[in-house]
Amino acid sequence: MLRFFDRALNAQGSREYVVFNYILLVLIFLSIFLLVVEVRYKDDIGPQMAVVVDVADYVIVIVFAVEYVLRVALAEKPKKYVFSFYGIVDFLAVFPSLLIFAFGGVVSVGFFRVLRLFRLFRILKIVRFRREQDPFWKGVLAQTAPYMAIGMALKIVVFAFEDQRWVPEIGNLGTVIAVVGFSIGVLLGSKLGVAQTRLHKFEDSLIETIGLLESIQTTVDRSLIREWTAQLETYFRTGENPDGFWDVHDRLILKMQEANIGAPIRASINQKVSYIVFRMKTETPRIYDEFLQRILIFYALAVIISIPGFFGFLSIILICYVLGGMYFVICDIDQPISHSRTAQIDADISPLLDYMKRLGVEPGLSA
Questions:
Q1: Vertex 13, ends 323 and 233: CA angle to 5°?
Q2: Burial class (CB in 10 A: 0-12, 13-18, 19+), 150
Q3: What is the pLDDT along the chain (367 residues), one digit of tens a residue?
Q4: Where are the alpha helices (DSSP H) in the chain?
Q5: Which Gene Ontology molecular function entries are recorded, alphabetically (predicted)?
Q6: Which of 86, 266, 285, 308 has the smallest number of Cβ neighbours within 10 A?
């Protein structure tokens, strides 16, 4: 049994881990929903429904408490976990409710109910390793779903308190929201254009390089060309050992020079290969990327706060999926060959694979 819980809590990517995190996600949303009921509709629910709400809250707290104890017990370094950021979040997700249950008549119930909002940070913990570790997630929807969950959770909190007298009224920000949204679209569109251009140039450079190699393969030792293609394919596939490829490439250029192949052809191959290899690792400047991330976050928060009711929920879902999805797609395109499990778009290297097949080189094996 302990082994099962250890896998559910620590074995990132395992089925137990994924299922357990889905259960936690449902419980987090349920607990936030119960908070909304307690704060906003406490005078409208009858005694029987109030009992149901209390029992559900008890069950959720017990689950979180057991999970916290198991995490401490199964952690390699319990003290390190307890005082880590997520360890403190786990503790605060349980502690306020336990105090309410134990000393409900003594402590400030309203204050400790608000402290239960720390459960929102549990969503961040679930998201933390999802993109790289969870093989069950694919596509843009999968990439944006956790952020939809965070946005929805925050909107639920705002919805719970937005009709309270102490909450300041926010004027009509529709025009501002629309203008900022349009500006974000322009920024994302600009980045998309640059990323697509780079991707197409990457593919064109590869095709042109293969064409140049085919034109000289009767002059240069074919075994060296086979080794060159195998090393390049290995680098594309693994992203490792570029030095091994460059060693073979330098020998190929030297053989071309010895075979009296013209300098323009050698220079062209060098230029295109350099672009292919280095472009595979380069990315958009970080400052631009971070700027886009911050804009998207602040824009989503502004929508959560300023658009009330049902349309607020709908708006945050659309923002996370449309703008967030566009951002993820652009980032994917901006890396011609990505080794991430969540990668959806890679450059087409089929010309290289076809050429290797004609040379009798099997992909996946260095010559």
A1: 75
A2: buried
A3: 667 777 777 776 677 777 887 788 788 778 777 777 776 666 677 777 878 877 887 888 888 888 888 888 888 888 888 888 778 877 877 777 777 666 654 444 445 555 566 666 666 666 555 544 554 455 677 778 778 878 877 887 777 676 666 666 666 677 788 888 888 888 888 888 888 888 889 999 999 999 999 988 888 888 899 999 999 988 888 877 788 889 999 999 999 998 888 888 899 999 999 988 888 776 667 787 788 888 888 999 888 888 877 788 888 888 888 888 888 888 888 777 775 666 677 788 899 999 999 888 887 655 4
A4: 2-10, 15-40, 47-74, 78-82, 85-103, 109-115, 120-128, 130-133, 139-161, 174-216, 222-238, 242-258, 263-279, 286-306, 309-318, 325-333, 350-359
A5: voltage-gated potassium channel activity
A6: 285
Enumerate the domain spans of the chain: 2-134, 137-367
CB 157 within 8 Å of CB 32: yes
Closest CA to 21 of 126, 150, 120, 142: 126
Token digits for 100? 């309410």
316: tokens are 């945050």
